[in-house]
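Postdoc handover notes: sequence design on the structure in folder B. Input tokens:
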């Protein structure tokens, strides 16, 4: 298995490690609920260096990225960050990612760990007619996510410019004479920052954040808490809500699909889509936790499956995102198969929880 630059430090901290997308990654340190609550109430730090950053630059970088993305990239200002989906020509989801614009001709894309090579190949394939340079930074760089209610205060101690940044922005910053990228993005719903830097800088910043973060109640957090945090605020996870055989217009990321006045890979297939499925939030009203793949029923008929499900530490009840083949109204009651029982689950409007 691959390891991030911080792998020895995760071991020193006693992290429970497991395989994820070919990497041995920390799933938890003191416990998922403890780390989840630390982010919601104070601040947590995540090693997300298993994800990949791809630089795309050149006079036609904007045109290429706009053509690949369901969301509009063209015309976005320097310093912007845009969440989007890339589609196959048949309409299924290649991946979801953030596209950052550093200046007129330079962008970078952050892709999911499980799709790093697939996304790079997809990008290079469609880049052939464009005047661009593509540089993957998979091996030389790392990524930290400092997230939570007190993240702005903590990050501003090290990067003063953080206090002035609005959400979904990016800028260059200095640390010990080297340039790092500071982005006011994240996937927890509690706000904060992601820092992109060389492996050497990531190693030093991890220690510094843990030191400076003590008065703020900082906790190292693993992928377990990252998953419960994103689920509570209704954010998609590739391989669950999004997949090669799921259209973005069927998902919680449907809002990214901007059809009018532009063309993008997969648009024609999405326009022709007839029988569209839908994703809803569902709160389980009973003892038991709905897990990925659990069957969903309505009035005795199977209507779909659970794409993500877990216990919500903030709400203290089980929640799930379901993919179903018909429309439902808020407060409709579904049934989710959990082992030998069918548990009632109430349809709600996401997010489940607003920090």
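Designed sequence:
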């Amino acid at each position: 298995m691959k390891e991030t630059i911080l792998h020895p430090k995760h071991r020193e901290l006693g992290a429970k490690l497991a395989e994820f997308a070919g990497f041995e990654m920390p799933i938890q340190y003191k416990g998922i609920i403890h780390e989840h609550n630390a982010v919601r109430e104070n601040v947590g730090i995540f090693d997300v260096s298993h994800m990949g950053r791809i630089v795309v630059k050149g006079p036609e970088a904007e045109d290429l990225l706009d053509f690949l993305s369901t969301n509009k990239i063209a015309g976005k200002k320097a310093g912007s960050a845009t969440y989007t989906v890339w589609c196959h020509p048949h309409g299924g989801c290649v991946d979801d990612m953030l596209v950052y614009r550093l200046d007129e001709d330079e962008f970078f894309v952050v892709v999911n760990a499980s799709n790093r090579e697939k996304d790079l190949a997809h990008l290079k394939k469609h880049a052939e007619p464009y005047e661009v340079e593509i540089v993957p930074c998979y091996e030389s760089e790392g990524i930290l996510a400092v997230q939570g209610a007190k993240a702005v205060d903590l990050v501003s101690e090290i990067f003063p410019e953080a206090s002035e940044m609005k959400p979904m922005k990016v800028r260059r910053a200095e640390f010990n004479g080297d340039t790092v990228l500071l982005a006011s993005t994240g996937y927890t719903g509690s706000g904060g920052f992601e820092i992109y830097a060389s492996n050497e800088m990531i190693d030093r910043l991890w220690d510094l954040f843990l030191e400076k973060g003590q008065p703020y109640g900082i906790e190292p957090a693993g992928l377990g808490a990252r998953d419960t945090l994103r689920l509570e605020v209704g954010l998609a996870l590739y391989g669950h809500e999004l997949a090669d055989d799921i259209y973005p217009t069927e998902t919680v990321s449907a809002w990214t699909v901007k059809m009018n006045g532009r063309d993008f890979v997969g648009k024609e297939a999405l326009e022709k889509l007839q029988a569209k499925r839908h994703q809803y939030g569902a709160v389980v009203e009973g003892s038991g936790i709905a897990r990925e793949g659990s069957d969903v029923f309505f009035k005795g008929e199977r209507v779909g499956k659970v794409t993500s499900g877990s216990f919500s530490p903030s709400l203290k009840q089980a929640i799930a995102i379901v993919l179903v083949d018909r429309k439902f109204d808020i407060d409709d009651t579904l049934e989710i198969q959990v082992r030998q029982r069918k548990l009632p689950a109430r349809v709600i409007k996401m997010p489940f929880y607003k920090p």
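Context for whoever picks this up: The mean pLDDT is 97. Don't rerun without checking with the PI first.
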